[in-house]
Design brief:
The chain is of the alpha/beta class. It is built from 14 helices and 19 strands. An 8-stranded parallel sheet has the order 10-9-8-7-3-2-1-11. A 6-stranded antiparallel sheet has the order 12-13-14-19-16-17. The structure holds alpha-D-glucopyranose. Residues 63, 66, 103, 166, 202-203, 267, 337-338 line the site of alpha-D-glucopyranose.
Length: 537
């Protein structure tokens, strides 16, 4: 590995939605002590080497922690600062790096900064948020909140509107004000001084807006008037992605320079989804170019969006990899707390191949909690839903339900009724049951993390696409000077034979967990939904 490569290259990350991971104190909500209790599972059983913790700071929980009322605290629901320090210490002892969420675009409306800002037009913090007057009583422009409705909320006390790109309880900070930038940089230093290894930066595209507050243009590709996504009726090119975006991110990552080994993972997805925008070069690639790529890299969310079709995967990944400088860290993931679960999206029969793909691609893979046991979306009756957004029509609760640990009450997540219902199938899909079954999905994940951890080619090798003349089969090579590995994935539920085209090797791994050291030459038959790894060294 060259010295210029980011620290996180070669790690395997796991996203913990804390509320639903493990409840140590019987209040129905997961907490920091719960994570400490399960560190052995993460490091020794599952084999991950980094965790991303969703927000645990003081919050009124309107957006379940993405509305922060004090950045330098731990919400009592999750524990206290000592619990966090203990978690950090034990995680590091177990070889696990810890990334925490950094919500820099907005605070809670209960944050002291906003309370002051709102108090009067001449309060020193007035300009920490984005306030505007309007002449006709209507919002200052057409910008929309990602959670629905106008992005402007009228405040009768000062007779102005404030901007909120998400819920109205999440007012946007004014990043044009250097004091705001300094305040967020201090928040970063606070957590870095405690010892965190980095951040996952939330909703960064909104950090900079159009300086003239021009209306967002209408989306010419939006025709569905009945769609729940009124948000898609506009192209959000003025309400986000403003001229100072990369400058803000550069200033944020500059903080990391004083903390060797720290890293910023950026949530930068939505732009690639702008209908009509050239999809060939996603906007997030600019992040690598304009922000120090040794300190920062964006998620790409294509694997969350693409239909399960080998041709789409080959086309996207070949194209994406070809655009990356060898030192740019790709960050692939199949899910997170904002999207439907993998097993529900692509079907249970396909998830073993997806697991192999994720853990054999270059860069830093993120596993969303529960993916390793095939957790599915849990349909929650409308009246019981908690998510304030209406993403996907039904909100995001379905993918945020308690992790299923075992067959006992509440799937072993909590001794009390959990904050969201547990999947009714938990007796089949749970960690304990799957650990006991040698060919279970969980044991596949374990074998794959082990394979990745032991292979230099899988962690650091080049990516070379394979030309396989079959539309349902996608394959690639990972290669270092000393090691050459091929990965071949059958995306379909039919068997297919692939030709080795003169290369010879040994099949060292199958998603069926039953093949080892079989000869690979001439014609090899892939079973339905089978992925194999071949050692060609
Ligand atoms: C990000 C988070 C999401 C949150 C939003 C507002 O997209 O992933 O959960 O609701 O930002 O902070």
């Amino acid at each position: 590995m060259t010295k210029t490569k980011p620290w996180f290259w070669g790690d395997i990350a796991y996203q913990i939605y804390i509320r639903s991971f493990y409840d140590s104190n019987g209040d129905g909500v997961g907490d920091l002590r719960g994570i400490i209790d399960k560190l052995d599972y993460l490091s020794n059983t599952l084999g991950v080497t980094a965790i991303w913790l969703c927000p645990f700071y003081d919050s009124p929980m309107v957006d379940f922690g993405y509305d922060v009322s004090d950045y330098e605290s731990v919400d009592p629901l999750f524990g206290d600062l000592d619990d966090f320090k203990e978690l950090l210490k034990q995680a590091h002892t177990s070889g696990i790096k810890v990334i925490v969420d950094l919500i820099a675009n907005h605070t809670s409306d209960k944050h002291q900064w906003f309370i002051e800002s709102k108090s009067s037009k001449d309060n020193p913090k007035r300009n920490w948020y984005i306030w505007h007057s309007s002449e006709d009583g209507n919002p200052p422009n057409d910008w929309l909140s990602a959670f629905g409705g106008s992005a402007w909320e009228y405040d009768s006390h000062t007779n102005q509107f404030y901007l909120h790109s998400f819920s109205k309880q999440q007012p946007d900070l004014n990043w044009n004000n250097p004091e705001v930038k300094d305040a967020i940089k201090n928040v970063m230093k606070f957590w870095l001084d405690i010892g965190v290894d980095g951040f996952r930066a939330d909703a960064v595209y909104w950090l900079s807006k159009d300086g003239w507050f021009r209306d967002d243009p209408r989306n010419p590709h939006f025709h569905d008037k009945n769609s729940s996504g009124e948000y898609d009726a506009l192209i959000h090119s003025h309400s986000r992605l403003g001229p100072h975006l990369y400058e803000h991110l550069q200033d944020m990552t500059a903080v990391l320079e004083d903390y060797p080994g720290s890293f910023l993972v950026v949530e930068a997805s939505p732009i690639a989804a702008i209908p009509g925008k050239n999809q060939d070069i996603p906007e997030y690639l600019n992040l690598y170019r304009y922000v120090d790529s040794k300190l920062c890299a964006p998620f790409n969310f294509e694997l969350i969006r693409l239909p399960w079709d080998a041709r789409f995967y080959k086309s996207f990944i070949d194209n994406f990899q070809s655009k990356l400088h060898p030192d740019y860290l790709p960050i692939y993931t199949f899910g997170n707390h904002d999207n439907p679960r993998l097993a529900s999206r692509i079907g249970e029969e396909a998830i073993r191949v997806a697991a192999m793909l994720l853990l054999t691609l270059p860069g830093l893979p993120f596993i969303y909690y529960g993916e390793e046991i095939g957790m599915k979306d849990v349909q929650i009756p409308r009246g019981e839903q908690k998510d304030p957004s209406r993403f996907g029509g039904n909100g995001r609760d379905a993918a945020r339900t308690p992790l299923q640990w075992n067959k006992s009450n509440n799937a072993g997540f909590s001794s009390q009724t959990p904050w969201l219902p547990v999947d009714k199938d938990y007796e089949k899909y749970n960690i304990e049951t799957q650990l006991a079954k040698p060919d279970s999905l969980l044991n596949l994940y374990r074998a794959l993390t082990m394979l990745r951890r032991q292979s230099d080619a899988l962690r650091h090798g080049n990516y070379l696409s394979l030309e396989i003349n079959h539309s349902s089969v996608y394959g690639f090579i990972r290669q270092t000077k000393a090691e050459k590995i091929a990965i071949i994935l059958n995306f379909s539920s039919k068997k297919h034979s692939v030709e080795s085209k003169g290369s010879k090797g040994k099949i060292i791994f199958s998603t069926y967990l039953d093949k080892e050291n079989l000869l690979y030459k001439d014609l090899t038959e892939l079973r339905p939904n089978e992925g194999i790894v071949i050692n060609l060294s």
